[in-house]
Amino acid sequence: MSCLHSAIRASSTLAAAFVTSGLLLLAACTDAPPVAEPPVIDLPPADLTLQGRDFSRVRSVVELADGRVLMTDAIENSLYVIDLQTGDVRTEGRAGEGPGEYGRVDHLYPLGGDSTLFVGEPPRLLLLVGDRIVQGLEPVYPRLGMGSGETPWGVDRAGRVLGVAGFAFQRRSGWSRTHADSLYILLSTGSVFDAGASEPDTIARAGGQGRWGLARVSSVAQMGGREVTMNSTLVIPLASEGQGWLFADGWVALAHPEPYRVDWLSPDGDWARGDPLPATRPEVTREEQCLAISRRSGAECDPDLYAGWPSRVPPFTMVVDQGWNTPGGTALQPGPHGLLLIRRTPTTAAPETRYDVVDRTGTLRGAIRMPEGATIVGFGVVSLYVVQKDEMDLLTLSRHAWPAELGD
User: Fold this and answer.
1) Which of 124, 126, 157, 175 could be stapled to 112 by a disulfide with Cβ–Cβ 3.0 to 4.6 Å?
2) In 168-288, which ranges are E strands?
């Protein structure tokens, strides 16, 4: 019997503990034999491309029932309604503090029934029905203990929000989720559709990036004609953390890098722990360190600046080289058919962007290999939405069929 099937059988027994404590701990699995990695599928060619219009920093894309899409661009600070068939592009709403307005655009979350939750900054939630903003909502996620720089790790159609809070074993000033030793994965008990208070349930814990160690760096900058000392706290560019995603239908995926696996929480509160997933993980050489530093910060390679490098490249890390086009720079995104997409860590042997595809049994279906400069920014019923970067760092939006080899 596989580890996952054992976990499913045990879930009814463990459910009571989950309800009582809000935290479900599952036993480690050791019975899954190693298997070869599944094939890597090239992204199918675009079937629609928006011609004559470039964008700057696309946050997210949501497909509407009529085939048009909603899209947010952080640099242009706009919410767009786009028809890829006709090439028509218009804005919806505007920046501001009034009804139906937003400060800075952030991410879009499909809720089902052609409804979308639009997150703006400072914390402001707007509900769209089709292509129109219809209502402002009470932000629940600041009450989840999330920092001001965090956005939800998914929202379901009931209005529940998945969040994260960091925990450090040593007292530090200025530490955040990205510096935390471990993470609490939080699920709101209330809904963004209700005005009342919502206390979070801690549904799981995961390792944080700070457990690999932190470097404190000081530099001198010229500001206002005088020298000012700037202090920074850095994490290792290959530091890994657990990451989660709440799907619109209420399922939660929790991806762990050590060992690489995906656990699933059903809407009924039952956890199923996935078996370890196959992953080629090269040794962390100086070349791998330099590649990670260049992608994380673009700085000159100085691995000795960091302490605690892992011995092997983790399967996924935070993604910061494409403009934070996922909430909090997570490597996770939802895909068609309730599948989870995990952006793998580039290596010197495989520097291209690649997404693993994991289903709700915790099985790795395969991987999607992207063209150079291409990134997935959203999905439809049977499609993926992609932006392609040109030599001027401008982005072109296109739609691609879901690879048939990966199933539904």
Assistant:
1) 157
2) 182-188, 200-207, 214-223, 226-235, 243-246, 252-257, 260-265, 271-272
Domains of the chain, by residue range, sit at 65-137
DSSP state of 250: S
Structure tokens at 50: 């928006």
Residues 6+ apart with CB under 8 A from 285: 348
Contacts of 64 by beta carbon, 8 Å cutoff, 6+ apart = 70, 114, 130, 131
Please state whether beta strands 354-358 and 364-369 pair in parallel, antiparallel, or not at all (unpaired): antiparallel
Are the C-beta atoms of 149 and 174 separated by less than 8 Å?
no
Per 3-state DSSP, the chain is made up of helix, strand and coil in percentages (nearest 5) of 15, 40, 45
pLDDT of residue 77: 95
Q: Residue 248 in contact with residue 111, Cβ under 8 Å?
A: yes
| HSE-CB for 357 with a 13 A CA cutoff | 25
Q: What is the DSSP string of 323-366?
A: S--SGGG-SEEE-GGG-EEEEPPP-SS--S-EEEEE-TTS-EEE
Given this model, what pLDDT does residue 175 score? 60
Angle among Cα 93, 95, 100 to the nearest 5 degrees reads 45
Q: What is the pLDDT of residues 10-48, one digit of tens each?
A: 333 333 333 333 343 333 343 444 456 778 999 999 999
Residue 24 sits at φ, ψ, to 5 deg, of: -105, 120
CB atoms within 10 A of CB 15: 16
- Between the two ends of the chain, the Cα-to-Cα distance in Å is 25
Tell the CATH topology of 65-137: Thrombin, subunit H (2.40.10)
**DSSP secondary structure of 261-285:** EEEEE-TTS-EEPPPPPP----B--
Structure token digits, residue 248: 């619109």
Q: Is 46 helix (H, G, I), strand (E, B) or coil?
A: strand
> What are the φ and ψ backbone dihedral angles of 7, each rounded to 5 degrees?
-65, -35
If you count DSSP H runs as helices and E runs as strands, how many of each does the chain have, helices first?
2, 28
Per residue in 203-260, pLDDT (tens digit) is: 999 999 988 888 777 666 677 778 777 777 788 899 999 999 999 999 999 999 999 9
Q: Which residue has the tokens 């690649």?
A: 354
Residue with tokens 């203990």: 145
At residue 381's C-alpha, the angle toward residues 399 and 83, to 5°, is 45
Residue 321, number of CB atoms within 10 A of its CB = 15
- In sequence order, the 6+-apart residues with CB closer than 8 A to the CB of 279 are 37, 260, 315, 344
